[in-house]
Write a structure and sequence with these properties.
Elements: H1 2-17, H2 22-30, H3 32-46, H4 52-78, H5 84-87, H6 107-118, H7 124-143, H8 149-168, H9 174-199
Helix pairs in contact: 2-7, 3-4, 4-6, 4-8, 4-9, 6-7, 6-8
Amino acid sequence: MGWEIGVVEAMNQWTVVHPSFDPMIRFLASYLPEVSTLLLVIAWFAYRREDLHSRTGIVCAAVAALSGIVVAAVIGHFWYRPRPFVVLGGMDHPLLAHVADASFPSDHATVVAALAAAFAGTHRRLRYVLIALAMLCGAARVAVGVHWPTDILGGFALGTMIGWTTWSLRRHLERFSFWLMHLTWVIRSSHGVAYTRTRS
């Protein structure tokens, strides 16, 4: 763990020297799951009604993300690894308040890696965006002292495995995607009818 302590301390010291980046670092370290969820919702409504293949990819990504959260929580429950701010007795530049629960694996890294891997077959551009965001998020969470570097790497590996596994099972999710796709269309159509009647 010696080299990891050095990395965490060096990255936290960087935030001391560059305080103007504090808001961005806090945002990247805290809200990436919410941003990823918003991207999923936008992607779902952006595709044509009949585009079952792309919508199945979105469902796979959502299932992979939820699975990643569960698996990461189970690992953290059975193996407690203290977070950097606990081991170091606090950070020189504390940017983010966090409970002292298990550090490994990073659930943020797990979720975003799962999304990126599950999107590999249908949303390549979005996958690259998520990979970039995941790397920034991982660096930010190390810098604020809530994760060790290997927590991030472990989360990436775990999430990628879960994402690939979910995508390999996409045929089993196509029927659910089909019904969810048509339910979305019915809801949007009913709102359109209601809006038209209100205008008239």
